[in-house]
Design a protein that fits this description.
By secondary structure, the chain is mainly α. It is built from seven helices and no strands. It is 82% helix and 0% strand. The radius of gyration is 18 Å and the shape is elongated. 46% of the residues are buried.
């Protein structure tokens, strides 16, 4: 298999990551507020147990596609840095940190969903832990987005508007991480949603660029 085909598969991996995570979010339903009562949170875990477990499964599968996607993005960043690997390494570390915290958050929810009746009053503690982990993942994703798009703007790796979408998504993730770890109101989750939407648009845009810039993509 030639390198062009692997690059096109990487572009498909980015699209698959976005689609699978959207499906997972839909299946898990609308989450309760971070300051909701323990009874309401326990009911959420009981009602959405299958969806919460599916979110972890789909997120894990989507991560495979995302790692493959980043392999092609890494090559672009490496060429733009002439092999110096400064911002590309920062981007990789940020993505790894954000992904690990996201999977930890999903794992907490899936664990509670396995035996929701046994949690009782502790449901709120586990839910708070999962939301703080999810919010904290914003720090890593912001690092990833800032490093990649600073290089993108400097080296013209992708369209200027797309790079700024990535920067704005990174800022939203920072706001989400700060508010989500310091307060229990809905503002942190709302900022995280804005960041995720912006990041999804950015990933799709980068995936399209990888596909269209790959030789023989039309075939």
């Amino acid at each position: 298999m030639n390198d062009s085909k692997w690059a096109r598969y990487a572009a498909i991996g980015g699209v698959a990551f976005v689609v699978l995570n959207i499906v997972g979010a839909v299946l898990s339903g609308s989450p309760p507020a971070a300051n909701a009562s323990a009874a309401k949170i326990a009911k959420y875990y009981a009602d959405k147990d299958t969806g919460l477990k599916a979110t972890l499964w789909l997120g894990g599968i989507g991560s495979v596609g995302l790692v493959w996607w980043f392999g092609s993005l890494w090559r672009r960043m490496s060429r733009a840095e002439a092999g110096a690997h400064r911002l590309s390494v920062v981007s990789l570390v940020g993505l790894g940190l954000g992904g690990a915290l996201f999977m930890a958050s999903a794992s907490v929810n899936a664990s509670v969903a396995l035996h929701p009746a046994d949690v009782g009053e502790g449901a709120r503690v586990f839910y708070t832990l999962s939301t703080v982990l999810l919010s904290a993942s914003g720090f890593g994703l912001a690092i990833h987005l800032f490093a990649t798009n600073i290089l993108g703007l400097r080296a013209k790796m992708f369209p200027t508007w797309l790079a700024w979408v990535g920067v704005v998504a990174g800022l939203a993730f920072v706001v989400s991480a700060v508010l989500g770890s310091a307060t229990d109101n809905a503002s942190g989750l709302a900022a995280g949603l804005v960041g995720f939407i912006g990041w999804s648009v950015w990933v799709l845009g980068v995936s399209f660029g990888i596909w269209s810039d790959t030789p023989d993509a039309a075939s």
